[in-house]
Amino acid sequence: MDSAVALIVSRGLSSCTLEVVALEAHISKPLTYRYFPKLADLFKALVERE
Fold this sequence. Notes:
mainly alpha, about 0% strand, 4 helices
């Protein structure tokens, strides 16, 4: 999730995709989509974490 925060801060939410988050976090795309089917789901989890 730290990788996602860094990407959102540097690129902005509209420029991020789950594929880019997976690449930056060094995890597979299917694993990312398993936990966060949509980018909005990831964003919600980030907001709840902070």
